[in-house]
Design goal:
The protein has 391 residues and is of the alpha/beta class. The protein has 2 domains: 29-274, Type I PLP-dependent aspartate aminotransferase-like (Major domain) (Aspartate Aminotransferase, domain 2); 281-390, Aspartate Aminotransferase, domain 1. The chain is 40% helix and 14% strand. It contains 14 helices and 12 strands. It has helices at 18-21, 26-41, 43-66, 79-89, 106-119, 136-145, 168-177, 197-200, 250-255, 264-267, 269-277, 283-306, 343-352, 379-390, and strands at residues 14-15, 73-76, 97-101, 122-126, 150-156, 181-185, 204-208, 220-224, 320-324, 354-355, 358-361, 366-372. Strands 2-8-7-6-5-3-4 form a 7-stranded mixed beta sheet, sandwiched between helices. It has a 3-stranded antiparallel beta sheet with strand order 9-12-11, with helices on one face. A two-stranded parallel ribbon has the order 1-10. Helix 12 packs parallel to helix 14 (379-390). The chain is globular. The protein starts with 13 loop residues before the first strand and ends with a helix.
Length: 391
């Protein structure tokens, strides 16, 4: 059964790129608008007197969704913001090392480089092969570059360019044994894969709620282990820095108010969690399973059409899948409109109204195509993509 009528997406577009920014259901946008109406009816009441309680209610719902103590969660606009907050809070010395992987999200890798350069530290890149045969290749790549100088490992839970679910539980365990903190960039994880941040035990974890949980744009969280909360400050230092309150965690006191903004995206996260969990009779487990099955079907369909092998085991696929395009037919092309990463991406959009990312990756670069699968997608859309690639 198609569920596209719940979403405001343009029906003339074959939208296969949920992974980039998500898409909020109409019901969730309506819930956000009700909050905005309430805020604009009496801004002082809403922002000064009501907001703290509303944030606590939303935090409790998100905490239950990702299995995390609410005192350890704060809202941020996006995962990149959270990664920057953690990296900028680190006390680094010359010679210290930050470990990233070559599958990392470029914005967050840039943030790591910025933090390292300011302190005379350096970024060390763990090179993870792609295609790869097993999750063990990820763990091996990271383990090889750990050293006594490693202060933090920044690793994606679900990679952006290659759409792989990394074995973060094993990574956190190995790093903890080595005395190294881990910052997990879980931008794609909430709503795509089951989460228990309580059992994961990472020092820092951030996830977007506007991607696979389908909250409005600008809803994300940062989870900080209690042992690390004294170290983390928000990017914007505001009134909380001088507050004497002891009834709330210092994390919440500083992060919950960084100046005037529209908080309704985060406050709408519970509505998104409830709505998306109601779409199928089996709730969130059924939705995640259906999206994953569709992503695998789409991947296999494209691999068959292109004559390539799946680049990773099924166990490393969530609700997205990346296919390396045959080098003899598709090479990364520059010179396209700067709003596109590749001329093929531009052609698919302009000639077929298919919205799908095509990006260069690796050295020498090869073209990768990534598809997403959400409740509004269906197999016919991926067949259309396969036909367009053959044309």
């Amino acid at each position: 059964m198609h569920l596209d009528h719940h979403f405001a997406l343009d029906p003339s577009v074959t939208f296969l790129n949920h992974g980039s920014f998500g898409a909020a259901p109409r019901a969730v946008l309506a819930a956000q608008q009700r909050l905005r109406d309430r805020m604009e009816a009496q801004p002082v009441q809403f922002l000064v007197r009501d907001l703290e309680g509303l944030l606590d209610e939303a935090r409790a719902a998100v905490g239950a969704f990702v299995d995390a103590p609410t005192d350890d969660l704060v809202f941020v606009p996006n995962a990149t913001h959270a990664v920057n907050a953690v990296l900028r809070s680190l006390t680094l010395s010359p010679g210290d090392e930050l470990v990233v992987t070559d599958h990392g999200y470029a914005a967050c890798t840039n943030a790591a480089r910025f933090a390292a350069e300011r302190a005379g530290a350096r970024v060390v890149t763990a090179e993870v092969p792609f295609p790869l045969r097993s999750p063990g290749a990820v763990l091996d790549a990271i383990t090889r570059v750990l050293s006594p100088r490693t202060r933090l490992v920044l690793v994606d839970h679900v990679t952006s360019p290659t759409a792989l679910v990394f074995p973060v539980e094993d990574i956190v365990h190995v790093c903890q044994r080595a005395g190294v903190d881990v910052l997990v960039d879980g931008a794609h994880a909430p709503g795509m894969i089951p989460l228990s941040l309580r059992s994961l035990g990472a020092a820092f974890y951030t996830g977007n709620l506007h991607k696979w949980a389908c909250a409005p744009k600008g809803a994300a969280f940062l989870h900080v282990h209690p042992s690390q909360q004294h170290r983390v400050r928000p990017l914007v230092i505001s009134h909380g820095a001088s507050s004497r309150r002891t009834d709330r965690s210092r994390l919440a006191v500083e992060f919950d108010w960084m100046g005037t903004l529209d908080p309704t995206a985060a406050l709408s996260a519970p509505a998104a969690i409830d709505f998306m969990g109601s779409l199928l009779s089996g709730g969130w487990d059924a939705l995640r399973a259906a999206n994953r099955a569709l992503a695998l079907e789409a991947r296999d369909m494209l691999c068959d059409a292109l004559g390539v092998s799946p680049p990773a085991p099924d166990a490393m696929i969530g609700s997205m899948a990346t296919v390396p395009l045959p080098a003899e037919r598709f090479t990364p092309a520059r010179g396209c409109d700067p709003t596109f990463e590749d001329r093929l991406q531009q052609r698919l959009w302009e000639q077929h109204r298919i919205e799908v990312p095509v990006m260069p990756w690796g050295s020498p670069p090869r073209a990768l195509l990534r598809v997403s699968a959400q409740a509004y997608n269906h197999a016919g859309q991926y067949r259309a993509l396969a036909r367009a690639l053959a044309g």
